[in-house]
């Protein structure tokens, strides 16, 4: 199965470089997506541009796909399911949850000169980055791509309730499945509360398992293609 890989803020398609060969060895065709404004040299990209890039990748696949969204890009994966509910076999959300309709995509940090730069590691101290050594942190920060403000402050628009028929697996890195369920039970994940087929997968990592646990992450994603 084609597995579309969409990394979160400040990352391009190369974030999946260590996951790709692992998925290929498991018999799948991974498709890392470099989002407009996050690796193509554009600073004027919008959220709609990024959504269109993911939908285009869904449309280009020969059959149904697994769409993987990491962190903030969990919303992009969910928007793809909303746009193409009959083409998306399943959505995997890695360390993130889909925003609800009408909310801003990822207005989390200060913007400057029309972009939201990587804020440094301060906001990610603790469980998020516990498995990253200093060398890895420096490498990730050096490669971080400022996110266009029109992306981070873009408004999420969901239109097709058939998205709730698309199975979802929550891959839980810096938090546990039990903690994710607590958020769900507390009403903090309104989109996921209506999903008809919701699974959980635990991975013992920080927020960026594609860098620290690529083989394990690949196994979880491969398993998601066969589970209902």
TrEMBL record:
Instruction: Please give the coiled-coil regions recorded for this protein.
Output: none
InterPro entries, per database record: AB_hydrolase_1 (IPR000073), AB_hydrolase_fold (IPR029058), Sec-Metab_Biosynth_Hydrolase (IPR052897)
Which molecular-function annotations from GO does this UniProt entry contain?
catalytic activity
Looking at the record, the residues that make up the AB hydrolase-1 domain are 3-219
Designated name of the protein: Pimeloyl-ACP methyl ester carboxylesterase
Q: Which organism is it from?
A: Nonomuraea maritima
């Amino acid at each position: 199965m084609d597995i579309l890989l969409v990394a979160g803020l400040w990352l391009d398609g190369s974030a999946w470089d260590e996951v790709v060969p692992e998925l290929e060895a498991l018999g799948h065709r991974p498709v890392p997506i470099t989002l407009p404004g996050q690796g193509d040299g554009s600073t004027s990209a919008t959220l709609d541009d990024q959504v269109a890039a993911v939908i285009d990748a869904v449309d280009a696949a020969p059959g149904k796909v697994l769409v993987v969204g990491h962190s903030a890009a969990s919303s992009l994966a969910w928007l793809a399911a909303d746009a193409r509910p009959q083409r998306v076999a399943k959505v995997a959300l890695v360390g993130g949850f889909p925003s609800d309709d009408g909310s801003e995509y990822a207005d989390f940090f200060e913007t400057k000169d029309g972009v939201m730069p990587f804020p440094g590691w301060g906001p990610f101290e603790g469980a998020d980055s516990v498995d990253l050594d200093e060398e890895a942190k420096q490498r990730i920060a050096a490669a971080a791509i400022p996110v266009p403000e029109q992306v981070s402050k873009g408004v999420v628009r969901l239109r097709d309730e058939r998205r709730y028929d698309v199975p979802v697996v929550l891959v839980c890195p810096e938090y546990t499945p039990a903690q994710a369920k607590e958020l769900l039970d507390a009403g903090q994940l309104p989109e996921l509360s209506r999903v008809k087929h919701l699974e959980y997968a635990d991975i013992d990592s920080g927020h960026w398992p594609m860098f620290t646990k690529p083989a394990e992450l690949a196994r979880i994603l491969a398993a998601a293609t066969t589970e209902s």
